[in-house]
Amino acid sequence: MPMPATPDKKELIAKISSYINDESCADFNSLACQLFAYQFEHIPLARAYFEKCGVSPGSLERFTAIPPIGLNIFKRYELFDESSCLKTFRTSGTSGKGRGSSCFAADDLELMRLAILVNAKATLFADQQKTRFMMLVPSPLDAPDIIMAHGMAQIAEEWATEPAFYAISKGAFLGPEAVAYLQKCIADQAPVTIIGGSFGFVNFIDKVAPDLGSLPLPLGSRVLDAGGFKGRSRELTRADFLTMMADFFHLPAEQCLNLYGLTELGSQFYSRGHDAKKPPHWTRVRICHPLTLEEVADGGEGIALLYDLTNVARPLAILTDDLGRRLGSGFEISGRASGSAPRGCSLSLEEIR
Amino acid sequence: MMIRVDGFHIPGFQGETYTRTVGSTEVLLPKLTADDISRASDHLLGKGREILKSYSTDDLAEIFGMAADFWQHDSDLKMEIVVAISDLTGLSRLVVCHSISVEQGNSSSTDILAAMDRDLGSHNCLDRFCHDPNLNGKTRAYGPRLTSAVLTANVPGLSYLPMVRALMVKSPLIAKLASNEPIFGPAWLKAVAAIEPPLADCVALCQWQGSNEALQKAMFEPAEVAILYGGEQTCRTLREAIGPHKKIIEHGHKIGLLLIGSEGLGDIAAAKDLAGRIALDVAMFDQRACVAPQIVYVEKNSAVSSLELTALIEKALIDLEKDFPPSAMSVDTGASLAMERNIALFESAQHENMELFARSTATLIHEKDAHFNTVLPTRFLRVCPVDSLNDVVDILRPFSNYLQNVGIEANDERLADLADKLGAIGVSRVTSPGLMHRPSMRWKHDGISTFSDLVRWIDIELEV
Prior knowledge:
The complex is a heterodimer. Chain A is of the alpha/beta class. Helix content of chain A is 33%, strand content 21%. In chain A, the strands form four sheets. A six-stranded mixed β-sheet of chain A has the order 5-4-8-9-10-11, with helices on both faces. In chain A, strands 1, 12, 13, 14 and 15 form a five-stranded mixed β-sheet that branches. In chain A, strands 2-3 form a two-stranded antiparallel sheet. By secondary structure, chain B is of the alpha/beta class.
């Protein structure tokens, strides 16, 4: 089979942008294969890996055959094309295995911005209603290398009726100010969107609920949490979290959204209330058997394999260590692999690393 | 059909119980209070000690040897316990069965008495004053009034060992069984009691979930000695709980290693045989035991290369899957293994001499150079090429706390020289590949004289 011509980055980003705006204008598989060809050519470390796996642009027919790159690899290697890196986001390193990094050139940032806004419009603001914003995440100025701070600020710029109020400033939590801000929203009957880490919400409510009882938010308000509870001092199920939102903010489950995102990806995955997460059309999520990487049957558990067309300068197929369940055309994430295996008296990875 | 098994053995316990169900196994567990444990200790200190005094060490060794023999043959109790341990630990039934047979196969009465004689000069000194030729007098040993222990799981059959050691020095034992597999200990004791009923009154095997300071205190306080199995963090916490004034015998988590000299790789036939032996050391206990190898250091410039040996071990591991079926793998373990395999594959693409062999449940990484890095114990080996086996000593030196078993394939002269160097940095057993999985009862476990550490002595010196 003749080797297809490698598309250039500008042309690719234009095609992917059009596709993000209009699903009918292209085909996911075709774009993924073109993107793979670009990455094969322009990310040397990834190319060596693809060749080792025996996959090349000439042999690739389906995106599912792209050898995925594990998240651990981002902690040891910089995987980026030859573009000039404008922005580097880093993982939090909470897993104790080092921090992964993700580079973005100017055009990558633009593409990510488009994906973030189109996604938010279809999910978080499906009702097209602008609101006030309260952030339980730091601002991009306070946390320049945290991708969530960057993305959420872009959503606020687009959908906020006034500048967002950041309840975290220079590492300090402004509890009384946050309560006052929400009370003002209530007094003005101005709907508010609260965005934060899942544990940030619990922390906030644990702190203020004993005095306040509840803060019934105005109609049209919503919350967006991300991150989950693994490794935290309190672990809440999704149902517990939604009950907490209902009790404290008087929000129905459908006004509570959850976001799953990774520093290594330009796109995010939303779910509403108790529903499964639905990948936006420029992404694919396959819940796979961890060793065969074959997709599990509907309802089955496995490891999340993500494909994201906004990852142009970085590999588009990512093998996560997140455990998930396939639910029809959607999925849910249940936790992160522990990095361990049952053992007796044998020395473990964790004891040495 | 459900199997009902006991997850505790506490003489005279009248308290409440509950059941935990895993697969087809229902484990009966106690709801313990500190008073229950104190009552059990009192019972052991009174009746338990009196009973043990009435036996000679030869009698006791014979009884435990008979129990070991029982566990090496098929029986309804053994089949029940094998199925139950498999349910609780995820290990396949055949692996559980092999593991129990191997453990108990090392524990005949001759083995037990020989182990005592190595440590104590003569086991008879626990029965009476014995002449000591080095003393010009007589000597006698006494076991602790009561020994306590925190036992390990996941290596089927292992929990019997502290019981044998304590009872052989005529010390009653109170122990906490491992949370996820609390059943072999009580079953072993049931077999002992079937042979010699009074001995059931000499051991209390308790179980509670997680840490519980009150129960822990009640268990450790009346005991003179504590035997601990566990990881660094667990042992540190337990040491703090026990306090500074009690003797502690600690068996922390350890790593097994293999050193393969060029003399073991003279031709393909020898390499195949070696690979089969290495695979057996990995598959036994499903690599969960401290004796299981995790890293193989192989001399470069051998007739059969380290890369060829790696491929042969992979094949041998796959071939062993029939007789030693691997554990059922959880999604969590599978995902953790997937990440290990993925990064190894990626790195093998970046480095010429690195290669990943991952087929079925076998995972082998042929590393580009030699280092010390543990594995996920899922039939997973790192194979590291070295210029000379002598180079390995320097690599291992910083990790001396974790060293234990080393399988060496080299000529006698080199083996003796390497053993000396390895002993100096903390290795406590050197053997051949293929024998790593069956340390004898006579081995000084972790370099410790397990019997002599338990006892105290009185000497009679009437001559100068």
